[in-house]
Specification:
Elements: H1 7-20, H2 44-65, E1 66-78, E2 82-86, E3 91-95, E4 101-106, E5 109-113, E6 123-131, E7 136-144, E8 151-161, E9 166-170, E10 176-191, E11 195-198, E12 209-216, E13 223-231, H3 247-254, H4 260-266
Parallel strand pairs: 3-7, 4-7, 10-13
Antiparallel strand pairs: 1-2, 1-6, 2-3, 4-5, 6-7, 8-9, 8-12, 9-10, 10-11, 12-13
């Protein structure tokens, strides 16, 4: 005896079959073949992206070891390709390549030099790239500083060159120093009546006593680049003129002194 499914049971059966049944593909005359899954093809754009990632990773690694830096110190040793600079914390090795620029202020003018002009004892400021792994500063620009010690001298002006803007000063200690007067040199003068007043190089004369404050010029012995000059004038007075013949000598030659014998005769009584 056949039993008909109720509508509710029929709906449940359809849902069950739809959930668990696998799709069946009918292929006429052939057996269905399942193809293996293959990765997507690599394009030229993908290759370029990978190369860019590699370059960025390399650049980041370089930036971690190479840092732009500036440092100041005193040259301890120097050779053709390198130098050692003593800083306030430690000694740093400097690489002197072919492209290094060197400069210094000489006589008030910026002068271009070379690495051959760097000497032991020079105070220098170095700009370059510091390699943390090698503890090495690859120099790009070096500025040779002037001496930071200000010298003070006093003495008498013995010679003046208006052409070279220099004057020679003899100090009480016996030194002979050439003073270079720069455009930035401040000159003043002093006298009892007016005190300290503004002056200039043209007003300094031979024989004047001067006080000079300045810095020693590099690689020049007994040369000072003046920052300030105080002119006290000629403290010894006027320049002496030729001495005349003493009056006492002329008197002696014209009228001889009486001798003791003639004086005795003069004092004898008259007959």
């Amino acid at each position: 005896m056949k039993k008909n499914l109720s509508p509710f049971a029929f709906i449940l059966l359809v849902i069950f079959l739809a959930a668990f049944a696998r799709p069946v593909y009918a292929v006429v005359g052939t057996t269905p073949t399942v193809l293996p899954t293959s990765p997507p093809a690599t394009t030229s754009a993908d290759i370029q992206i990978e190369k860019l990632k590699e370059r960025l990773a390399t650049k980041v690694a370089e930036l971690r070891t190479l840092v732009k830096r500036a440092m100041f110190g005193t040259v301890k040793t120097v050779s053709v390709a390198s130098a050692t600079v003593e800083t306030s914390t430690k000694d740093i090795k400097i690489e002197l390549g072919d492209g290094v620029s060197v400069a210094q202020i000489i006589s008030g003018k910026r002068t271009t030099l070379t690495t051959d002009d760097i000497s032991v004892g020079d105070p220098i400021t170095v700009f370059g790239t510091y390699d943390n792994t090698l503890d090495l500063l690859k120099a790009q620009f070096i500025f040779i500083e002037s001496s930071i010690v200000t010298q003070h001298i006093s003495g008498t002006v013995s010679d003046i060159s208006a052409k070279d803007f220099t004057m020679t000063v003899h100090t009480p200690e016996g030194r002979t120093i050439v003073v270079d007067v720069e455009k930035t040199t401040k000159a003043t003068s002093w006298n009892k009546a007016d005190g300290v007043t503004k002056s200039g190089f043209s007003k300094i004369a031979v024989g004047d006593t001067v006080h000079v404050a300045g810095v020693a010029e590099p690689k020049k012995d007994d040369h000072i680049s003046a920052n300030r000059i105080l002119d006290l004038g000629n403290l010894s007075g006027a320049v002496p003129s030729p001495t005349a013949t003493p009056t006492v000598v002329a008197s002696d030659s014209a009228t001889p002194k009486p001798t003791a014998k003639s004086a005795k005769t003069t004092l004898s009584p008259t007959p």
